[in-house]
């Protein structure tokens, strides 16, 4: 009799836990403020311990991060050397275009990415789980960082690498642009610097590339074309951040929906320093 | 120190290690699931009910730091803890390599449960070949760390002599 009662209690416990979990999942999916507060509070409590653990383990983790990278770095060095030659010629053309653009911006009083305040943060840890592409930074809400803010690299804010998803007082989690739940409206730049087709770039679980779905049909894309953020309406990203370059395109004559792929211009696995743009949609700096 | 406080320490240490050190120790882009391995250890030594409760708490604690919905790990850990606890009642003789075996098989079961529930609640791309490969690599990794995690967690989960006597007396 006692064993039977024990079995029933065991099953009831499981049912109770399953129901509790499903309630939490549902509340979180609906964007409940209670769940967000719970997350934030728990992170606030644990973040000093995490910071301490990072400080203690950093010599070992730095060693593991660099392990086996000698060949990779040599190959990357060779590749970069060959790339520099091509880029130098592009710089000359780009500088002339920049001068024209700066004159036009001054006339029209348009905001630039460099005009937005930013918080520079160190990347301290990578993805916690196996089914998300994130990284953690050592600055949080105390530095003015809030959910959905754009995270970039480059002194003038050049390349988009992700957006803030979880924030505690002294740390934040950044969802990378190649995470499957990340999406952003983009504009393709044509090779001479003009504006090309628009589309939506979305991270993909099975690939390091972003899937690009073009809006409209009959669009032509060449390999290497840049995609930048459109920055429309309530988008958390300002206009003009580089999202990636086109790596492959589907022939528009054989596909009903035009899809291509974008490669991020920075190695998202090797980020060390990033900048969080304190940008609020609809506000000028 | 009471057993519950010791187990709470296990959860906190597991979360801190998972969110800091282990994010740098990737093998083929995959990290082990320290919390899940701890759940397997508790469930194997304490049974289904303890396994389910500990799984729920440990899963919820790591959920706080993940971008997946809160409660997803809690649910998959709780089910895994319960299943291992039920399995444990049928084991007559404990094999020598129980830690890596249970770490690997339990890790795989926990990973598949996480994927299945994730897909059921609308997480895109969870049921894919890449997802299964990730679960498999993570399970092997879980099996590798289990011989270190199991003794520590089982020591923390050990009941005092007094509590054990009282418990046996009550069941009778």
How would you portray this structure in words?
The complex is a heterodimer of chains A (285) and B (172). By secondary structure, chain A is of the alpha+beta class. Chain A contains 3 helices and 12 strands. Chain A has helices at residues 2-29, 33-66, 70-108; strands at residues 118-125, 134-137, 150-153, 159-167, 172-176, 183-189, 195-202, 210-214, 226-229, 242-249, 259-263, 273-277. In chain A, strand 7 and strand 8 form a beta hairpin. Chain B has a single domain (3-159), classed as Arp2/3 complex 21 kDa subunit ARPC3 (Orthogonal Bundle), CATH 1.10.1760. The mean pLDDT of chain B is 90. The interface between A and B is large, with 54 and 60 residues.
In short:
Chain A has helices at about 1-30, 35-65, 70-110; strands at about 120-125, 135, 150-155, 160-165, 170-175, 185-190, 195-200, 210-215, 225-230, 240-250, 260-265, 275. Chain A is an alpha+beta fold.
Structure characteristics:
heterodimer, A: 285 residues, alpha+beta, Thrombin, subunit H, 3 domains, 6-stranded antiparallel barrel, 6-stranded antiparallel β-barrel, globular, B: 172 residues, mainly alpha, Arp2/3 complex 21 kDa subunit ARPC3, 7 helices
């Amino acid at each position: 009799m006692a064993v039977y009662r024990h079995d029933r209690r065991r099953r009831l416990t499981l049912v109770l836990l399953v129901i509790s979990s499903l309630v939490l999942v549902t509340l979180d999916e609906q964007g409940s403020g209670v769940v967000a507060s719970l997350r934030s509070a728990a992170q606030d409590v644990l973040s000093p311990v995490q910071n301490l653990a990072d400080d203690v383990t950093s010599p070992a983790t730095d060693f593991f991060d660099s392990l086996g990278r000698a060949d990779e770095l040599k190959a990357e060095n060779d590749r970069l050397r060959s790339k520099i030659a091509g880029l130098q010629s592009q710089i000359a053309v780009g500088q002339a275009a920049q001068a024209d653009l700066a004159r036009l911006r001054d006339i029209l009083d348009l905001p630039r990415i460099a005009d937005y305040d930013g918080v520079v943060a160190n990347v301290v840890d990578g993805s916690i789980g196996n089914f998300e592409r994130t990284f953690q930074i050592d600055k949080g809400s105390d530095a003015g960082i809030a959910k959905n803010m754009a995270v970039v690299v480059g002194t003038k804010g050049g390349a988009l690498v992700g957006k803030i998803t979880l924030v505690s007082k002294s740390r934040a989690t950044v969802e990378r642009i190649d995470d499957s739940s990340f999406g952003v409206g983009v504009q393709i730049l044509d090779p001479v610097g003009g504006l090309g087709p628009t589309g939506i770039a979305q991270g993909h679980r099975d690939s390091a590339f972003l899937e690009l779905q073009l809006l409209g049909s009959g669009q032509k894309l060449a390999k290497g074309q840049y995609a930048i953020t459109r920055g429309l309406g309530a988008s958390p990203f300002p206009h003009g951040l580089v999202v990636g370059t086109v790596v492959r395109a589907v022939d528009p004559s054989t596909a009903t929906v035009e899809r291509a792929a974008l490669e991020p211009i920075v190695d998202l696995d090797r980020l060390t320093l990033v900048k969080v743009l304190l940008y609020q949609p609809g506000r000028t700096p | 120190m009471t057993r519950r406080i010791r187990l709470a320490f296990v959860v906190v240490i597991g979360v801190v290690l998972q969110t800091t050190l282990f994010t740098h120790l990737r093998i083929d882009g995959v990290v082990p699931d320290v919390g899940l391995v701890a759940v397997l250890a508790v469930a194997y030594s304490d049974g289904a009910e303890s396994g389910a409760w500990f799984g729920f708490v440990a899963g919820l604690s790591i959920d706080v730091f993940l971008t997946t919905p809160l409660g997803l790990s809690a649910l998959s850990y709780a089910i895994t803890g319960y299943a291992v606890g039920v399995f444990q009642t049928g084991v007559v003789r404990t094999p020598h390599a129980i830690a890596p075996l249970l770490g690997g098989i339990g890790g795989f079961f926990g990973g598949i449960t996480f994927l299945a529930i994730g897909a059921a609640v609308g997480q895109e791309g969870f049921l894919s070949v890449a997802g299964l490969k990730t679960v498999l690599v993570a399970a092997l990794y879980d099996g590798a760390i289990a011989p270190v995690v199991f003794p520590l967690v089982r020591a923390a989960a050990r009941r005092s002599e007094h509590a054990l006597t009282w418990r046996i007396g009550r069941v009778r």
